[in-house]
Specification:
Elements (H helix, E strand, L loop, with lengths): L13 H18 L5 H37 L1
Length: 74
C-alpha cells in the first residue's frame, strides 16, 4: 500500500488500532473469490516452474561455492 493511502492512526489506542487492522483484513477477505479450475492449474504450473528455476539456481550456487573451490585446491 502506498503512503498516500495510509491513514494516520497515531491518535488511536492499541485496542482500536488492532480492531482497525482486523477490519482491514476482513474487508480484503470479503473481496476474495475462489479461482476457477483453469486459473488454479495455471497458478500451480507457474509456481512449480518458478520453484524449479530457483532450485536450479540454488544448486548452481552450491556447486560454485563448494565443489569448485575444492577442485581448484588440488
Amino acid at each position: 500500500m502506498s503512503a498516500e493511502f495510509q491513514f494516520d492512526l497515531s491518535w488511536l489506542t492499541d485496542k482500536e488500532k488492532f480492531k482497525a487492522k482486523l477490519n482491514e483484513y476482513i474487508n480484503v477477505l470479503k473481496m476474495t473469490r475462489k479461482p476457477d479450475k483453469e486459473e488454479f492449474f495455471m497458478t500451480t504450473k507457474v509456481s512449480v516452474a518458478v520453484m524449479f528455476v530457483v532450485g536450479i539456481i540454488g544448486f548452481a550456487i552450491y556447486l560454485l561455492m563448494s565443489v569448485l573451490p575444492a577442485s581448484l585446491k588440488h
